[in-house]
Amino acid sequence: MTALLTAYVLMWPVLVLGVLIAIAWGFYKDAAEAKREGRQII
């Protein structure tokens, strides 16, 4: 039971990290595309 609870608790930081990486990757791609096109992001 303790191992399952530990896995459940440790799963959330991994999921949050994955979402954060996905958001940062999307921002990076948008910024690179805007730079190539010579336009501002905002």
TrEMBL record:
Tell me if Membrane is a UniProt keyword of this record. yes
Which stretches are transmembrane?
6-28
Report keywords, A-Z: Membrane, Transmembrane, Transmembrane helix
Q: Which InterPro entries does this UniProt record tie to the protein?
A: Trnsprt_adja_ssu-like (IPR049820)
- What's the protein here called? Uncharacterized protein
Q: What does the record give as the organism's lineage?
A: Bacteria, Bacillati, Actinomycetota, Actinomycetes, Micrococcales
